[in-house]
Amino acid sequence: MTRVSKEKRVEFTIKAGSPEKLKSDCVVVGVYAGSDLTASAKALDKAADGAITALVARGELDDKVGATLMLHDLPGIAAPRVLLVSLGKADELTDKSYRDAVGAAAKQLAGSVAADAAFILTETELPHRDLAWRISQAAQILKDSTYRCDELKSKREESKKGVKKVVFIAKAKDTAPLEAALRRGTAIAEGMALAKTLGNLPGNVCTPTYLATTARKLAKDHKIKVEVLEKGDMEKLGMGALLSVARGSHEPPKFIILNYKGGKAKDKPVVLVGKGITFDSGGLSLKSTEGMFDMKYDMSGAACVLGAIKAIAKLGEEINVIGLIPATENMPGGSSIKPGDIVTSMSGSTIEILNTDAEGRIILADALSYSKLFNPEYVIDVATLTGATVIALGTKRAALFTNSSELQEALTKAANNSNDFCWSMPLDDEYFENLSTNFADMANVGPPEGSFGASAYFLSRFTQDVKWAHLDITGVAWQRGKDKRSTGRPTPLLIQFLIDHCNAKKP
Ligand code: BES
Ligand code: MN
Ligand code: ZN
């Protein structure tokens, strides 16, 4: 059963215009700390006979980045509302302060009775960022702010509030790059929304079968081919590692293959691999009650792969992308794999499973082996692989492990440009000692010391001869605490990486 959230729509356009003459329900402009008005705020102030200067001087608008003040019916201004947004000190502007200010404006617009808005915050000059970047980010943030996940509420709140149209005010000789930026920002938010919804849906709804249905639906709506391998197919392929994790579950495992062919037939594809454990109980190495709280999010890697491919297909990027999703539950049961069991992976190498809770690397082993069949340019896997990521890096940055300096550079650049950060970790051969065992080619876990590095090292053994990167996203994929929810990360990073890769190939 596919559930659809009644999505709130917001449309974007780009136009030129003088702030005071705009025929809009609400004009959104920035103000710097110390009552320092931006160019557009100055124009509005002049038209309103200094009303804005007077209010700001009186301290009505806090200096803190993201503080807002909604003004109504100012004289001399066509629009009935002016939303002032604090940008902080003019000489201290950063990507973050810009995004925070846009986010604060988005929140105000979502709760306002204004039906449309003229958005001029994008005029804010930032070091190293052009107007296209600022527009793309703003579109993404504004669209993302309309995201809801209420599929499973019996009564949905239908709010009439919130703007339905946003016009970005910008004067440009050539608006084509700005229109492209707008489409990009919107597509990123749409990809994130898919990733968020899949992450947020509980384990009893978002099963491997549900992921497969979602992939098929995506293929129907876009230029994507999809194939879903069943248990029998996996057996034929010798995916003994993936199948061993699925043994304890009553839900049938699925191996989902998405194929987007936007590039030339001869272009090698980028393969994205997403961990799709739709619930991780730990298996016989059972987690504690608290340890299981967030385990419906253990398919966040898969969700991002679906989200990223959706966005790339929507944008019609000229690139070939394959998405691979090994999907299964990890459950205890009479037929579960047991600590000490040895399984044979698709690559032929044997794995001694000492801890059934280190299941992500086991299913990824087979997915990574399968990825080689596509003769890939790059293979990137995305997985909620370890709790150690959160200890090491917190929730701002995903951990990046790679065997390719080229990928390290490209992913780090894409992360910084998409504000979806990662940080490089070492991938040393010495980790092999952690995983050596008397009984098989490799164990799936070793001693606690260095277990973070060893988790990535384990994967690297299945990706020899390809340029491969592993993103451990346990810290970034969902927000913890009371306001728990999927973040949709690192979908923006993946999309940015693919777009950059595509542009780099253009003559
Ligand atoms: N899905 C978990 C990773 C995880 C752990 C996410 C804690 C969120 C919070 C993964 O399958 C797992 O259980 N990893 C183990 C590995 C250990 C047994 C070597 C971990 O990190 O504890
Ligand atoms: Mn686990
Ligand atoms: Zn897991």
Describe the structure concisely.
It is built from 16 helices and 21 strands.
Write up this protein:
The chain has 507 residues and is of the alpha/beta class. Strands 8, 9, 10, 11, 12, 15, 16, 17 and 19 form a 9-stranded mixed sheet that branches. Strands 1, 2, 3, 4, 5, 6 and 7 form a 7-stranded mixed sheet that branches. The longest helix is centred in the middle third of the chain and has 25 residues, at 176-200. The model has no long low-confidence stretch (mean pLDDT 96). Helix 8 (240-246) packs antiparallel against helix 11 (360-371). It has helices spanning 39-47, 51-57, 95-110, 131-144, 176-200, 208-221, 231-237, 240-246, 289-292, 300-315, 360-371, 388-393, 405-418, 431-435, 451-460, 491-505; strands at 11-15, 27-32, 36-37, 68-72, 81-86, 116-119, 165-169, 224-229, 254-261, 270-274, 276-280, 320-330, 341-344, 350-353, 378-383, 398-402, 422-424, 442-443, 468-472, 478-479, 485-486. It has 16 helices and 21 strands. 36% of the residues lie in helices and 20% in strands. The chain is elongated, with a radius of gyration of 25 Å. Manganese (II) ion (MN) is lined by residues 280, 282, 357, 359. Ligand BES is lined by residues 280, 294, 298, 355, 357-360, 384, 386-388, 445, 451, 474.
